[in-house]
Each structure stands twice: as C-alpha cells, then as structure tokens.
Design brief:
alpha+beta, Jelly Rolls, 8-stranded mixed beta sheet, 4-stranded antiparallel beta sheet, 26% helix, globular, Plant_2OG-oxidoreductases, oxidoreductase activity, IPNS-like_sf
Length: 366
C-alpha cells in the first residue's frame, strides 16, 4: 500500500509499506530498517515479574453495582477512584458482557487477519483517516513503523460509518461487531456514571454532555517478530477518547503502561476487559484523572490480537474542565475546544507519547 497524505495544498507521498504479516511469511528472520527503533525507544528484554505495587488494579463491576451489600460497593468504589486517579488503567471483571460474545468477536477478528492479503486490501485505510485496513499515523518516509496490522472502523453515530470498509468475509463479521459494539457502548455509559460518582458529580453529568457519543473500533494484529528487542507493536501514546475498552489476547503479554517512569506489563486476565482514561476525560476532570502513556511490545514466538473500542463525546460538544472541578485553588489547566477539533488534531499527528494533549493545555508565562 502507498498512502498519500494531503496537508493543506501540499501532497506528501509516503513510500510503499510492506504488509507485516506478508513480511513474516516471506522473510521471517528479517526486520526491515523502517521498523528498527532508536536505542532509547527499544523495549527492555528483561522479563522480571511485576511486583504487587506494579500490578494494574482489578475492579469488580459486580461489586460496584451491588445494591444489597453497600459496604462492599463503597470499598470497590474506593478502589475504582484510586485506579482512575493513580493509574488511569484498570482491568474490569464481572462486567456483564457474556464470555461467548467476547470469544465470537475474537474469532471473527482473527479470521479476518488470516485472510489472503488481496482480500484484506479490499478495505484500504485512506490517507489521513483511521478507517480501513492498513497502517495509521504514518506521515513521512523516515518515520519508524509499528510491527502491526490493523482494521479500524467507525461505529456510531451512523454518519461516521463507511459501510464499504466493513468486511463481508468472514460472513458473520458485521453482525458480531454490531452486537459486540452495542454491549460495549452500554458498558461505557455505566462506567461514565461510576466515574461521575467517584468525582462527586451527579450521576448523569457526563452522559448529558456527551450528546450522540462517538464510538470507533480497532482490531490490532501483532505477528511474531524475530527481534522483539528492536521493534514496537504500537508506539507510545495516550488515547484521544474519553474511555477506551480493550479486549486483549490472553495467550501473550503485549500491552505496557508507563507508571512512575517504568513500563509495566498488563498481565491478561481471562474474560476481563482493560479500561483506560483518555485525553478527553483528563481535560473534563481538569487533570484529576489522567490519560496514561502506553505501548505494545511484540513476541518472538506468538502473535497477539486485540480488539479496542474508543468512546468519546459528539464532535460538536465543547470540551474543557467541568465547572464543578474548577476553583481558585484548582484553576483550569485546559482550554475550551470542540471534540471535532481535537479529533482532527489527533489523527493528523504521529503517535508520540502524550504530546498530542499539548493542544489542549493552557500555557501560562511566568
């Protein structure tokens, strides 16, 4: 694929990008220079198990929603609040989505990535967008590439959908994605209610302001790599969403988050979903809850698949710190802008830690 990015009136051509899965088939021991990271960007080869203080919190949704045991619910809410405040990430168990649906979604996504290249290329990712099959966030010839193939789709509202990019093979892909996305959407609504409660806001504070929320899905496939010490499956970044819901492969560890200057691996829990705070929620909470930089590393022997959902306010919604979370002691840290403005800014910049969020910050001179 040879994507072309348009910036103003100037056309920037990005050279041919070889499909990673095909590369693994034809030259399994080769790691092209475009994938080899600079020494300070390369993942550590250390495999020491995380300590208890490095383990991403686990939140039990069943306990949070338990009306018959208020003490248990209060304790779980305390854990939920601490996870949002101190980590920006947590694993959610007893979330109410059937395990069979999670398994079906995993299966149809994997079936898609197993298709011949010519079949997958029927759904090409257009330059400057985040829908279709291919590489995203590529803007120059010398930019290092992620060891990953992805399929990204707009889900809701209906006007962001591009039906011609929804695979017809496997035949049950669209049906499964529809049911899966509807379940994740309801989960996100419940999580926003809990988030509001944890901040002392009225329970529908976020739901009321989000309008017709934007929902997108992305499936990431990370083939095995002969030199996992040289590459990254996904570059360090924070998400532009309000909430992100990740269904990760339980067969291998790949997701890492940056905690206190150290990359911490998120150990998969069967049937759990990984939830993380996005840039939008950091802005709305005036920095009380922060989005967290994360990345994906690869494995020498195993592939890895993840299914990600991004949930955010309507593009027309004006964002900025919520008035209830601003005071003379906690002045606004972020300016006002629309989610559509931030989305355009996000997709036209390469993944580079939390640099994208600089767009929203109020910069004061001393």
């Amino acid at each position: 694929m040879a994507p072309v990015m348009c910036s103003n009136s100037n056309e920037i051509k990005i050279g041919h990008i070889e499909d990673v899965q095909e590369l693994c088939k034809s030259r399994p021991l080769a790691v092209p220079e475009r994938y080899v990271r600079e020494p300070d960007e390369r993942p550590s080869t250390e495999t020491a198990a995380p300590t208890a203080t490095q383990e991403v919190p686990v939140i039990d949704m069943g306990k949070l929603m338990c009306g018959t045991r208020p003490c248990q619910a209060r304790e779980e809410m305390r854990k939920f609040t601490a996870a949002c405040r101190d980590w920006g990430f947590f694993q959610l168990v007893n979330h109410g989505i059937e395990n069979s649906l999670l398994e079906r979604m995993q299966e149809v996504a994997m079936d898609f990535f197993k298709l011949p290249l010519e079949e997958k290329e029927r759904y090409p990712m257009a330059p400057g967008t985040l829908q279709g099959y291919g590489h995203a966030f590529v803007f120059s010839e010398d930019q290092k590439l992620d060891w990953c193939n992805m399929l990204a789709l707009g889900v809701e509202p209906s006007f962001i959908r591009k039906p011609h990019l929804w695979p017809t093979n496997p035949s049950n892909f669209s049906e499964t994605m529809e049911v899966y996305s509807a379940n994740i959407r309801e989960l996100c609504k419940r999580l926003l209610i809990l988030t509001a409660r944890s901040l002392g806001l009225r329970h529908d504070a976020f739901g009321d302001m989000f309008g017709e929320a934007v929902q997108a899905a992305r499936m990431n496939y990370y083939p095995p790599c002969s030199r996992p010490d040289l590459v990254l499956g996904l570059s360090p970044h924070s998400d532009g969403s309000a909430l992100t819901v990740l269904q990760q492969d339980t067969e291998s560890v790949g997701l890492q988050i940056l905690k206190d200057g150290t990359w911490v691996s998120v150990q998969p829990i069967p049937n759990a979903l990984v939830i993380n705070i996005g840039d939008t929620l950091e802005v709305l909470t005036n920095g009380r809850y922060k989005s967290v930089e994360h990345r994906v590393v690869t494995n020498r022997d195993r592939s890895r698949l993840s299914v990600v959902t991004f949930y955010a306010p309507s593009y027309e919604v004006e964002l900025g710190p919520m008035p209830e979370l601003v005071s003379k002691h906690e002045p606004p840290v972020y300016k006002k802008y629309t989610h559509g403005e931030y989305n355009r800014h996000y997709i036209t910049n390469k993944l580079q830690g939390k640099k994208t969020l600089e767009f929203a910050k109020i910069h004061t001179s001393c």
